[in-house]
Prior knowledge:
The complex is a heterotetramer, with two copies of chain A and two copies of chain C. By secondary structure, chain A is an alpha/beta fold. Chain A has helices at 76-87, 110-116, 119-122, 134-151, 163-180, 199-206, 224-230, 253-262, 341-347, 362-398, 428-437, 465-483, 488-491, 504-509; strands at 155-157, 189-193, 210-214, 235-241, 266-270, 290-292, 313-315, 327-331, 334-338, 414-416, 444-445, 455-457. In chain A, the strands form three sheets. A seven-stranded mixed sheet of chain A has the order 1-7-6-5-4-2-3, sandwiched between helices. The termini of chain A are far apart. The relative contact order of chain A is 0.13. By secondary structure, chain C is α/β, with parallel strands linked by helices. Helices cover 37% and strands 14% of the residues of chain C. In chain C, helix 4 (83-89) packs antiparallel against helix 11, helix 6 packs parallel to helix 11 (331-368) and helix 11 packs across helix 14 (433-446). The longest helix of chain C has 38 residues, at 331-368. The radius of gyration of chain C is 25 Å and the shape is globular. The N and C termini of chain C lie far apart (56 Å). Chains in contact: A-B, A-C, A-D, B-C, B-D, C-D. The C-D interface holds C 2, 48-49, 53, 80, 82-83, 87, 90-92, 343, 429-430, 432 and D 2, 48-49, 53, 80, 82-83, 87, 90-92, 343, 429-430, 432. The complex binds pyridoxal-5'-phosphate (2 copies). One pyridoxal-5'-phosphate is lined by residues 102-103, 162-164, 197, 199, 241, 245, 270, 272, 294, 309, 311 of chain B.
Amino acid sequence: MSGMNKQGRPTSIGGAIPVMHETFTGNRALQLEEALLFELDNPGACGVDLDEPAPFTARLGNFERQGRIGLPSVSEPEVVRHYVRLSAKNYSIDAGLYPLGSCTMKHNPRLNEKMARLPGIGDIHPLQPVKTVQGALELMDTLAHWLKELTGMPGVALSPKAGAHGELCGMMAIRAALIARGEDEARSRVLVPESAHGTNPATAALLGYKVDSIPATKEGRVDLEAFKAKLGPDVAAIMLTNPNTCGLFERDIIEIADAVHEAGAYFYCDGANFNAIVGRVRPGDLGIDAMHINLHKTFSTPHGGGGPGAGPVVFSEALVPFAPRPYVVHGPDGFRLVETAEDAKADGTTPFGRMTAFHGQMGMFVRALAYMMSHGSDGLRQVAEDAVLNANYVLASLKNDLSAPFEGPCMHEALFDDRFLKGTGVETLDFAKAMIDEGYHPMTMYFPLVVHGALLIEPTETESKQAIDLFIATLKDLARAAKSNDKERFTGAPYLSPRRRLDETAAARSPVLRWMPPAPKQAAE
Amino acid sequence: MSGMNKQGRPTSIGGAIPVMHETFTGNRALQLEEALLFELDNPGACGVDLDEPAPFTARLGNFERQGRIGLPSVSEPEVVRHYVRLSAKNYSIDAGLYPLGSCTMKHNPRLNEKMARLPGIGDIHPLQPVKTVQGALELMDTLAHWLKELTGMPGVALSPKAGAHGELCGMMAIRAALIARGEDEARSRVLVPESAHGTNPATAALLGYKVDSIPATKEGRVDLEAFKAKLGPDVAAIMLTNPNTCGLFERDIIEIADAVHEAGAYFYCDGANFNAIVGRVRPGDLGIDAMHINLHKTFSTPHGGGGPGAGPVVFSEALVPFAPRPYVVHGPDGFRLVETAEDAKADGTTPFGRMTAFHGQMGMFVRALAYMMSHGSDGLRQVAEDAVLNANYVLASLKNDLSAPFEGPCMHEALFDDRFLKGTGVETLDFAKAMIDEGYHPMTMYFPLVVHGALLIEPTETESKQAIDLFIATLKDLARAAKSNDKERFTGAPYLSPRRRLDETAAARSPVLRWMPPAPKQAAE
Amino acid sequence: MRYLPLTETDRREMLGVIGAKSVDELFRDVPEHARLEGLVDLPRRQGEIEVERALAKMAAKNVSASSVPFFVGAGAYRHHVPAAVDHLIQRSEFLTSYTPYQPEITQGTLQYLFEFQTQVAMITGMDVANASMYDGSTGCGEAVLMAHRVTKRKKAVLSGTLHPQYAEVVKNLSDFAGYDLEIMPPALPGKVEDIAAHIADDTSCVVVQTPGFFGELVDLRPIAEAAHAKGALLIAVVPEFVSLGAVTPPGEMGADIVVGEGQSIGNGLNFGGPYVGLFATRQKFIRQMPGRLCGETVDADGKRGFVLTLSTREQHIRREKATSNICTNSGLCCLAFTIHMSLLGEEGYKRLARINHAAAVDLAERLAKVPGVEILNQAFFNEFTMRVSKPAADVVDALADRGVLGGVPASRLLPGAGLDDLLIVASTEINTDDDRAAYAAALEEVL
Amino acid sequence: MRYLPLTETDRREMLGVIGAKSVDELFRDVPEHARLEGLVDLPRRQGEIEVERALAKMAAKNVSASSVPFFVGAGAYRHHVPAAVDHLIQRSEFLTSYTPYQPEITQGTLQYLFEFQTQVAMITGMDVANASMYDGSTGCGEAVLMAHRVTKRKKAVLSGTLHPQYAEVVKNLSDFAGYDLEIMPPALPGKVEDIAAHIADDTSCVVVQTPGFFGELVDLRPIAEAAHAKGALLIAVVPEFVSLGAVTPPGEMGADIVVGEGQSIGNGLNFGGPYVGLFATRQKFIRQMPGRLCGETVDADGKRGFVLTLSTREQHIRREKATSNICTNSGLCCLAFTIHMSLLGEEGYKRLARINHAAAVDLAERLAKVPGVEILNQAFFNEFTMRVSKPAADVVDALADRGVLGGVPASRLLPGAGLDDLLIVASTEINTDDDRAAYAAALEEVL
Ligand SMILES: Cc1ncc(COP(=O)(O)O)c(C=O)c1O
Ligand SMILES: Cc1ncc(COP(=O)(O)O)c(C=O)c1O
């Protein structure tokens, strides 16, 4: 443990040491305030040097833009400083443990960033002649091969843009299969466990399905009996997350799959948690029909403050024929792209359609492939094992300090509820905010919904034991403080971040969604 | 001015708002503590994957290394986090105004970083066959051309590694010329103004010269009479900085040059402040014989926390024949390098020798050239004008709040002394440290030596008026506070930085210059 | 393995704390026959050197846009991205952070999203914009669904100006979600598309692209009028966002929703993704918008700050009642967009647009002189369509053999539509005069 | 101009505050005839696109090491630099900060310097190291001056193992500073250099390189003994720092000062610079060291922190009495070094060294089979010298024509020394078996 850590030092609010808390600038040494970009506007400044084109006759018709747009004029040094200062207001994986359950905030190797920027990868156009992008198609084909091998599934659609888009893709394939069977009209219900991520019901609803909720057992898993009772000839599919959002493996998954298939429905699996089992379990061996894979979770493409991601979907034999365009095939003259309905007809397939323009998130494909190749079959298996080990270590170490709703072992994440806070006046939210002062990003809170005041911790495999030990010690200290009436440490938290607690209610009540130029000052004043 | 700045808010120490000042981890939200690398050691972890070579017969003789070196074993995620966390403890130009006088902390364009990383620039070996590096030699030749045009001097040696190394190079050329004239023995004295940067006397002394100090006038410039009185047949050279380290142009520079030359000596100019006059004044028009140019100042190659830099030296006709190897020549078959004494003989020149292995700081050359080409002749002139304008604006705005020892106009930097702090109990150092809490890097302090408690402010041309206005307002507020007895704000400062004032005396008294493994614990305890 | 910090010793100690004998025990909930005993059939771990070598080899098989005269567009455009952009988006604090759900320690992301929303709203001439969609095509699909929600109608009309793959995406979504759709035939430049005639009382929206797929600028005003007269919305689609530096924005021509592809600003070609969907609308529709929104507020000390807001529209709160299922969006691409736009500013953005237009006009003039070429467009921005005297696909292939990437044959996206002789060509600020001369010369050879 | 934030309005306002009519007034101290009225005769400002194009064009005229089988060494070595290194050194906080004179807000730089010093001391087997010199060659010059200070003597002896350009740098400095020097003739592998015989009572130091310029490893122990017996110091020079992962460090063989070139770790070839000089010595000599030193201390709250220390040795405090005139050093290259070394760690560093050695042994074995080649070395690390049957300079040229960069002819650095048939060849972890096979094949063709 670092000699610099103050473990064991008492925590206090206020106190005797002279702490300077207001400065003239509002800055706090390296913690710098930053104006809005628009407030930096200085007409005449510019962050690029572009020469005015030589005089020519415009051919814009009547569509020449008139008047000011309102964009601020800022020089390059100021622009760079603006974003560097903003960046310093963010937490990141590179700064510390980021235990957001379900989000899989793991290390993002810089090799992958470098590979994505090779001119032969980053600087090619999706509609160049295919003979000029054979390497790109090879890369996609290689990625597809890895994904199929790792999941044990025979087909994959690479194009979905993120997990939720993958869900849509998978459910569309299911729908297409049902249409092909002439059962689309009849099957209007989709079963979704209570613990599911919001995208699952949203996806099903988007396609017009009725969402039917499956209750959970006391062990945090699908209630098999309740589930079977809900099955019927009007069920199109089940959308099940496995490992589930409580961080648990669905023990009955094979029975579930069998029952689904028996009922003539399909089994969609939310694969957001594939990182827990990669290399150790192949979803194809569990009876799954379609599953998306968040390349930005399991395969570490950076989350980038909210995206972009990539959500390839693997398919069972039953669904492969319906997988969307485009896809890559390897023919005698090299790689080809099947892009249009005509191409598909020629290829003898029946894709349900197209999810997006072009071919998917190439920039994420190369990163994910670099990650996979770096780990290899052995390393990926170790990824799952270490992720699960780290989570169980957290669960075992904290179960007496926090409260755990379910028995272990867990998979890649450890779920706690708020029973340990009962009577303290501290809520899950407060507890999380106090972690900020300690230098941690909070865990996922209030999700999954099946548990009260949930605290879902996913350390991932890229955290060291040393880092996790300090994290555990900190949470123990916080739990102790909460229980010993040190309420202000929580309800006022965070104290030390660039901003203290933000008023979200006010924000939603009268939304201010953009900057507006200040009203011109009145001449008389 | 930013709406987020708290100008006009009173500053107080301690106070009523509950400020949490100790955390369990020692972290303060985004301000994170970080252990020493060695404390992260975890044998078995490793940040690279290298395969053991296939068995082979070593040919190391008896020199196989035995035993542990002691290097820590750390995985890549931990290494990345270590340095990201360390970085967050640094101030930088990208974070804010960095007004270090004489150091020229200006914006570092990222284009230049990108250019330095082109494989054809960053990934070529200095001893490849010259026919495989024609573009590199062209680049050096182009840079040389720009430097000669900008300075109005006929020759340049590119190889010196930094400013001080350039000084050495220039003084060696002077010495070589004196040797050629048979006057080396006779000329043993070098005149250096009191206000000179430490490298000037150190350089002269390194070459065995007696350093003779020239006093300054009340106007902060070389005392012409005193200087002339010091001239004599034993003087080898004068080393003069112009604009000088008080930020002033040496008005009598041409008279000085004439007198130097009349006395049979040479005129070395420290060109660290060339940024003040680039494009407006050519040192060649001032009678200078040799001058180094800090590419890392005037031409914005990044300072990198202390280096690397580059210090090319331009030469007058008198010194060109002695310029060191290597240099580039353009012949009928393209560019050639004159590397060895033999090459030079063939080329008919008489270089004094060699400053360094290989050919100099190519990585800096490309950055500097990209910077020059971006600005062009017009932009570079504007650089000088804006640098001087910004400095004069600071001087004019603060001269009534701080105390200015010399009349303006100044050149690229504004010098203040500590008279304004008289009787406040606040010293220059305290004043500077209080700036840290306000989010500023302090200016250069206690330099130049000709002024008491000097505060030397160089805003550079890449600061906006808005940024400078806030800086000025902050210094005014600090000056006001110092004068109104708010002493604690200064003497205890900084309060808000990652570390508070560090004990430099203790560090020097019993130096700890490296980490040592902790002594093994005694078994009995 | 370099990315895995745990050592065997760590693992043993941790298993001890957990009270498990082996890691296998932790996987005991996995049905036995589904537990893989050995390794999957894939290569073992590799070092950086090997991975880099393998991927660089693939990359080397592609012709990169920087290596040839390059004129390919049709929905993705090669522009110069200032070096500062790529540098800044790689900062750890941006690259390796998550969606800003904890605003106290994600003000960096939140503030740039707020600024991004403002820029998009200003440029499109709309009131508000969201914090991005996946890309232009999926944004287009979402816009149609939103129009259905707003109008409570079920039928959209897609103009023949719309990028065929965008149309396919809308159709796919529309079909599966059970909505109606009318897709008009390709709208060739020179012929006016009478879309107003297709707007009926049950039409929820019309979707029109400008510059259109064939490069032609479209007058949205009459379409907006016709749509509004029937209570329908006008959705304007702008895949080349640089155009709005020179061209009247849809917001000033009556559009109700503007969907854009932001790739052109700050983002590379990337073989088609990731890109960034821009989505702007009128204030009154904000509660029907899909995607994340960032809003201004204050913190406990009264200081200005930003938060994600109106999340009651979103799946993580509203689940099956959400306006969209989108979760992860295009965060980092927004950042690239907004940084590049900040560098450009008002003047730079407009000038960039003028340079693009000049480049395309120059190219059109040069190519028009090549025998066998007819330029179809009247009013265009940086892209136009030409009729060539041989099948366009063959022409493009033959040009590629001569080291020129000359554009997109319409038949690649619209096979069997009788458009085999049409070639869509773009020119931007990255093309030099030499590039355009090389194109004309090569085309002359090929035709 | 994109880097200049001031606008004409700003300038006017600021001149007003200053009380000047024009900026010319601010330059009034410049003698009139030295004021340039017009612009210097150089091109005008250019945008990023143009600058990038021009420099890329120059770059394209060079054969980059990554594009061919590459075996050039002789003081600069191509190694794989992990991607994390280059990413991290570009962080604004490292790249755009100054020398850490204000320790409260430069702990980042200071801590890595402290760690760097520790790594260098450990690897060389010495007590302490400084925070870097410009490069190995100038560090070597400084080491000789330091030895003169320590011993109060004036004469150095340079072994024939020393890189000829290092020797030139030392000679240059030594001559101008008025010291004596003996430079021994090139020490070819296979012949033992009797340097001990050249150590006299007035000898301040002997300077020996290992691996030597011709790749041969040198036994420093007898030299150290001989030097110490006469009260002289042994300065060991290590230009290929990867070697110390496999080879006994100078500190264990009696060296008093170790000078290294750190380029091999974390830093690219860069056509010769910037590189990073490593400088280590015994505790007792610290006050005679040149360059910056970082030391540990505590802050006002008692927390551990770091500062630059012992600056009374340095020019900014001591001026003409300083131990050196060095100011700016190689900060960012130290950072690259220390990050790469952190990634390597004990195991990685040693393994990297073994891989290098294996690569060179394999290459030597392959080339030895080529008719006309004789390998001279007995004990070497990743570099060796071969005698070839034609002038080595011609051989290297002919190899280059065949797309192989085959090494450095000794005659390039030692012309006229009768060594025209010697070729110095290095192989590192970046070379594949195919690379080495290609070399052997090309060499066979050429000889
Ligand atoms: C369980 C689960 N399902 C689906 C998703 C949606 O994935 P994405 O954000 O990539 O659309 C997430 C991501 O947050 C998730 O955690
Ligand atoms: C006036 C002056 N001269 C010389 C130098 C030395 O230059 P360098 O640090 O590049 O060796 C400096 C830099 O600090 C300086 O300011």
